[in-house]
């Protein structure tokens, strides 16, 4: 049930109607209804996988109780290790069995049949979330272990299938201390406005251009020679596609949660404005960056044991992060590239302390580096990625494959203005604070003139704009392309 679909809009309307009545009966009834609604939301994709989600919840909660009961003893550490292995094994079976058996068959003369395994939607996200929960439990950071709060934290539908990866520190205090769960007019207005703007980004600004991007990548996959222009149109087009797609989803998730009075972590904050890859990862998929830092980079040594350890840790962490996105060598290379980018950043800071390149130059180099990496992220296989990079390097021809990408190219100036010159939605809703700022990204200095003029104020102007963008986006739903991060 994709957010940008007619069936989801119907689901949301029905959910709000019933929640409005149920929440009047108290916090317990409101939480129970949200849990049931979220399970219906998940089961609408494939009801057969509901037992998997519920089983994962029950097993991880049992591990959490065991760790709590044995806190301070070696048994807690053993239970934590077994719990992590359970979650990794669950994720590994569904996500990597086919890939690993395929590599085995390619390298040996003893082929093994590859089973058809459907990846349960959202598995990577709710599995990582529960690993983080067990980690916090092991470290004594969990203050509230009530079962239904734990369940709601994991399954609440705005973030269940594509994030953000919510830490118990983000959600459990809200669930434990809140008493009034009734719908509030201001939260409904703010949440629906953010949702509508996110929906507009996806269905109007980007989805109509996606087929032309797909044509270019599919042409390269079929062996056609792309020209210099087409290579760059494909790479830049996909860079904008994943930007607006992920930005739209993040906004819609935050808006949906805020309707019910919940604040999710801010997961996206104008990442193409970054002047270094290090800053890019503070702005792109912020909750995943935090998870990889806390669960992989720091335990590997982080930056506490010298430059060599830091370089190894960051390259290994990002390579694993790439593999998390998908079972394929293209994702491994994408993660490895970002690891190398970050390693260069570490070496630069160590070798030239206090020396910084101009912000404009850093911004251009960062965007180009990220764009090159996106080619591997999008390409179906390594030959396709290398063919597009070859075209981008001018090693093929200047001629274009087709004239189909003209409309896409004409959108580039608009995308450029929105991405680099406009404030993002979280800045426009700074006063309302609909999301948790994980990285202190909202600047403390006063907002600029454009931000002040556009900032949400609940006026008739904003109401009209929200209504217009929602109706326009609703009519554009026929252009639907699935959210990119739903596949992970």
What does this structure look like?
- By secondary structure, the chain is mostly helical.
- The chain has two domains: about 5-180, no CATH class; about 185-485, no CATH class.
- The chain is about 65% helix and about 0% strand.
- The chain has helices at about 5-20, 25-45, 50-70, 75-105, 125-140, 145-155, 155-160, 170-175, 185-205, 210-220, 230-260, 275-285, 285-295, 305-325, 330-350, 360-380, 380-390, 405-420, 425-430, 450-455, 460-475; strands at about 265, 435.
- It has a two-stranded parallel sheet with strand order 1-2.
- The longest helix has about 35 residues, at about 75-105.
Structure characteristics:
488 residues, mainly alpha, 2 domains, 21 helices, 2 strands
Which secondary structure elements does this structure contain, and how are they paired or packed?
Elements: H1 6-22, H2 27-43, H3 50-69, H4 74-107, H5 123-138, H6 147-155, H7 157-160, H8 168-177, H9 185-206, H10 210-221, H11 228-259, E1 264-265, H12 277-283, H13 286-297, H14 307-325, H15 329-351, H16 359-378, H17 382-392, H18 406-421, H19 425-428, E2 435-436, H20 449-454, H21 460-475
Walk across the major sheet and give the strand order: 1-2
Shape: globular
Helix and strand sequence = HHHHHHHHHHHEHHHHHHHHEHH
- What is the count of structural domains? 2
State the helix count. Answer: 21
Instruction: Give the proportion of residues in helices.
Output: 55-70%
Task: Tell me the fraction of residues in β-strands, as a range.
Answer: under 5%
Average pLDDT number? 91
Annotation, overall tally of beta strands: 2
Alpha-beta content class: mainly alpha
Q: Low-confidence stretches at least 5 residues in length (pLDDT < 50)?
A: none
The Rg value, from CA coordinates, equals: 23 Å
Amino- and carboxy-terminal Cα gap: 15 Å
Largest sheet, strands/sense/barrel: 2 strands, parallel
